[in-house]
Each structure stands twice: as C-alpha cells, then as structure tokens.
Write a structure and sequence with these properties.
This protein has 217 residues and is mostly helical. It is 80% helix and 0% strand. The protein is built from 10 helices and no strands. The chain is globular.
Length: 217
C-alpha cells in the first residue's frame, strides 16, 4: 500500500510542473490575455443602449489598463486599451472625449513601438480612425493625411480584414469617394469569420450594411 502512495506522490510531482507551465503559457498568450476585453467590448458596443455605453466603456477601460499593467511588454493589451478608450470617447459626447482620444492614441503609439504588426495591424487601423475623426489643430490632432497613411499600413498587413476595410470605407465616404468606399464595404462584408468573435462580426456586418444603404441613398 505504501508503494502505491509513493507512486501517486511521484506522479503528482511530475504533473505539477506541467500544470504550472500550462498556466504560465496561458498567462502570456496574447489571445488569452485580451479575450476578456474583446468579449466585453463586443457586448457593450453591440447590445448595450447608446446612452449607457460611456459608463460601461469607462469601467472596461480600467480593466484593460490593469491587464496592460500586468503585461508591460505586450502590444495586444495596449491595442485593446486604446480601442476601448476610443469607444468610450465615441460614446461620451462631453468635453472629456478629447482627453480620451489622446489617451487612446498614446496607448496605440506605445503598442506600435512594441510591435506594429500585432493583431494584424489593428493599432494602425484604430490610429487611422482616430486621425480621420478627431478635429484638427488647434482643437485636436486630427490629420487626414496621417489617417490615410495609417489605413494603408493596416491594409498592407490585413487586406481582407473586416475592421480595416470598414473604417477605411468610412474615411473614404467622409471624403466624398462613395465608389471606393462601397468597394471597401463589399470587401469587409466578405471577410472571414474571426474565431471567438461572433458577436463582434455580426455587429460589424450590421454597421457595414447600414453604411452601404446610406451611400446608396
């Protein structure tokens, strides 16, 4: 009987390092690190009433900042902190919105400095959207030329991406190029599904169809 217990004890000792290694791997896997933020962002963005989004994005931004702090050398959490801050700014129509977009830009710039290719260039996509929508000097940092450059960097990395093509289409539509915008929207609509992001994909496709309908009018 004693021999059986010894074998079980030795087996347990051999398993513990494997479990620890698996836990460490999960903790440093970018997809696992950002998954809670991605998931919650989609819920707030696509299911929460517009007048309640600002507060919920603010809470999510704090959570994202905590995750970023736990992974200081990782670009992916910074990208998602920037996305959440930009979304909060879009939902906050007060004077705090400009401060939020500046914080978002800072996160995204830091992410690019670490790894601009992370998440298929999502930092560039979000920076392009910010520079295209934020007012220019002296109010903000908006700059259409910089927006164009960032969008082109993003599309070079992910030419068939749903978000890349949608936000570039918005930019083109705002500049009056409806034909090119419609082509980008058609590309976005044909983008492949992203694993684990069904709600985000469904919500984005609804936005794509809405913009297409607007451009046809």
């Amino acid at each position: 009987m004693k021999g059986v217990w010894n074998r079980r004890f030795l087996l347990a000792l051999s398993v513990f390092p494997l479990l620890a290694a698996a836990a460490e791997s999960a903790a440093t896997d970018p997809a696992a690190v950002i998954a809670p933020i991605q998931s919650r962002w989609a819920v707030v963005q696509y299911t929460v009433p517009k007048d309640q989004q600002a507060d919920q994005f603010a809470a999510l931004a704090k959570q994202a900042a905590g995750i970023t702090a736990m992974h200081p050398g990782m670009a992916e959490p910074l990208i998602w902190e920037g996305i959440v801050l930009a979304s909060e700014a879009g939902a906050d129509h007060g004077f705090g919105a400009l401060s939020l977009v500046k914080q978002a830009r800072s996160c995204l710039d830091r992410a690019v400095a670490i790894n601009g290719n992370a998440l298929a260039g999502s930092a560039y996509t979000t920076l392009g959207s910010l520079y295209s929508k934020v007012p220019g000097w002296p109010i903000g940092f908006g700059d259409k030329d910089k927006a164009e450059a960032y969008f082109r960097k993003a599309l070079a990395l992910n030419p068939a991406g749903i978000d890349d093509n949608y936000f570039y289409a918005q930019y083109l539509a705002d500049r009056g190029d409806k034909g090119a915008a419609m082509q980008r929207l058609q590309l976005a609509l044909r983008a492949p599904d992203r694993p684990g992001r069904a709600l985000a994909d469904r919500g984005r496709r609804d936005q794509i169809r809405a913009l297409m309908a607007k451009l046809r009018d």
